[in-house]
Amino acid sequence: MTSSNRSRSSDWPELPFAAWSETAAHLHMLTQIAGKIRLVQTPWTNHSWHVPLYLTGRGLGTSLIPYDAKAFEIDFDFLKHELIVRTTDAERFTVPLEARPVADFYQEVMHELSKAGLAVNIHTTPSELPDGIPFEKDTAPRKYDGDAVQRFWRALLQIDRVFKEFRTRFIGKCSPVHFFWGSFDHAVTRFSGREAPAHPGGIPNFPDWVAREAYSHEVSSAGFWPGGGGVDHAAFYSYAYPGPEGFAEAPVRPAAAFFHKDLGEFVLPYDEVRRSDSPDDTLLAFLQSTYEAAADRANWDRPSLERTLKP
Length: 311
What we know:
By secondary structure, the chain is of the alpha+beta class.
């Protein structure tokens, strides 16, 4: 990517978590519903790569989901604020994204799927949340700030682009750049190729066997949260599993990045990237330096896993 194609600070929207945290919590539940539908209908892929959502030109989407001899897709349109379901036999329906109980949204989506000949049954307890309320019982009022949701999506547009540039530098096994609805984060993960110790599990409403399969091999993983889960602001993160000796003390860039002892990973506030002279370069420095901190200390075979991009 040439310097003329780099983004400017003004391309990265403000995303103050406190101002839209209730909307974010609502949107988290809505993406879980769509994600769980994809989960139960899609053949298993290693490390749960069959379940995430992907960034689209209007929001987030599932890509095609198989259903018997046909298929369907679910898209969140954050410009018109509606959920759109399309089938390969020309069925289409929409459900509004608005301030309403999660239970109402869930019931409408499942009813419309059934009408379209798509009978789907999902586990309705939210994943990765300690006190998650089953969707059909989540009847409390919910907020939906459409402007904040659009800002979140526009931030993801910038983040997704930079993450994909970072991904091209690695020719070893690497995940797609994708949005995990369980943890509500955008992520990309590199693998050393070596097996890892069994993950201890213990993630709320997340089967231990799934966690162990997800972390069956050594990883260096980076991503973005809009906030929550121990961080009260939008932030980038990077961690290694298993964490090699000396990882927490490794020097990383930029200077604003730090190791969060409670989370066990490096964190860089989103605003530090957004406000920098070159947001792309600032974020790439964080991604690269934290990866190097993990790979070097764990003795990854970096020459065989990486490539140098032509200018």
